[in-house]
Amino acid sequence: MQDFKSKNGFIIFWIVAIALLFGAIVIVTPFIPAILWATVFSILLYPVFQKLLNKGWNRGFAAFVVTMVPAFVVTIPLAVMGTIAGVQVVSYAQELLQHQGSTTTTQSSVLRTIGEELDKTAKPLLEKVGAPEVKLADLLDKNKADIAQRLSEPLSNGFKSFMFTIVTLIMSLLTMFFMVRDCHNMKDAALELVPLPRKQSEQILSQIANTVRSVFFAVVIVAGIQGTIARIIYRIVGVPGAIPLALITTLLCTIPMLGAPVIYVPIGLSLLIQGKIWQGSLVLGVGFLVISQIDNLLRPLFIGKRTNLHEIPVFFSLLGGVLALGPIGLMAGPMLLTLILAFVDILRLGKESSGEIEEDSIPAAT
Question: Over the stretch 289-328, which tens digit does the pLDDT of each residue have?
């Protein structure tokens, strides 16, 4: 009877524990991006916090000063420049979409204007290949409703993603303040729960911190390269305000799934509308083929070089992290990869050490 009660008590305990764990996961899940951003900012700026403490600063005030760094460097500029970019995108989108329902003023349709300009450019080539009757203007005009819908959906999704990112960053700043201020207590409590020797746990934390700094370095450097390419293209085609637009492009290049297309697509379409075919085609071509693709090549190279990881797993960790978690996945993916490799090393070392013990226990042949 006593064994029955003990066994039931054990089962009930684990049922309650699993239910509590599931409830905690459900509650925390919506805030995972904010927690991850706070973790990334804390890792990047903790050395600064430590220096302030060494100078005799109060922990609370030092944590507040450190928290204001990402607020003024990331959150506020992102909100301001993103708003400016959004206004520009909306104005271009309205110009493209306002005529999509018109049936009487076909000559004023923006899409038809683009098609007519493309027809003029492509006419000599079409005549040479024996297809002079192909009219892109008619094709665009007939499908303008579908084109308008396809253009509006990404804009709407991009705006929602942008607003969610801003709210997440604001929440992460509050979380970061407490992380930085109370990190010494959090670290000791977390290491006590990890079933590993403290030295190995410290090594894993050090590897994660190095990965975060490497990813941050790669993101900043690659975004600077993308912004430089964008500025060169904007200057070549004669876009007014090339430098401010390039700076906004650089900032947006740090945000996965949003990025530079928010700027160069409206610029390219505007140039096509104005009849500047080669300029608009150059902006869109370089944008899609170079600016939006170069980060997939350079980021894994920079991260792999600084973390001694192979470029292929780094590439998939970046891509998978972004697809699973959004912008913060750019940091979370390589962090998870580092954790996996660290545990693999621990298992490998444990297996080697156990193998050595078994060999030592075998009596030597006489």
Answer: 898 888 888 888 888 888 888 888 888 888 888 888 777 7
Tell me what the mean pLDDT of segment 327-356 comes to. Answer: 76
Output DSSP code: residue 288. Answer: I
- Same domain for 158 and 214, yes or no, is no
Q: Is the backbone of residue 226 left (phi > 0), alpha (psi -120 to 50) or beta? A: alpha
C-alpha span between 154 and 182 (Å, rounded): 41
Q: What is the DSSP letter of 255?
A: S
In 10 A of CB 25, how many CB atoms? 10
Is position 25 within any domain?
no
Q: Which residues contact 173 (CB under 8 A, 6 or more apart)?
A: 38, 41, 67, 70, 71, 75
| pLDDT > 90? residue 64 | yes
Q: pTM of the predicted model, to two decimals?
A: 0.66
CB atoms within 10 A of CB 321: 24
Sequence-separated (6 or more) residues with CB below 8 Å from residue 265: 284, 287
Length of the chain (residues): 366
Strand locations in the chain (E): none
Question: Which structural domain, as residue segments, surrounds residue 234?
Answer: 199-346
* Residue whose C-alpha is closest to residue 281's, from 151, 114, 154: 114
Contacts with 296 (C-beta within 8 Å, 6 or more apart), sequence order: 315, 319
Q: How many domains does one find in the chain? A: 2
Six-digit token string for 160:
């929602």
Residue whose structure tokens are 């509006």 = 152
316 and 272 within one domain: yes
Asked if residue 358 belongs to a domain, the reply is no
CB of 45 closer than 8 Å to CB of 24? no
DSSP characters over 63-78: HHHHHHHHIIIIIHHH
Instruction: Note whether residue 1 is domain-resident.
Output: no
- Both 332 and 207 in one domain: the answer is yes
Assess if residue 207 is contained within a domain.
yes
Position 34: which residue type?
A
The CA distance from 336 to 317, in Å, is 8
Q: With both helix axes pointing from N to C terminus, report the angle between 311-325 and 329-361 in degrees, rounded to the nearest 10.
A: 130
Structure-model confidence comparison of residues 202 and 49, the more confident one: 49
**Predicted local distance difference test score (pLDDT) of residue 104:** 42
- Measured CA to CA, the distance from residue 192 to residue 346 in angstroms comes to 18
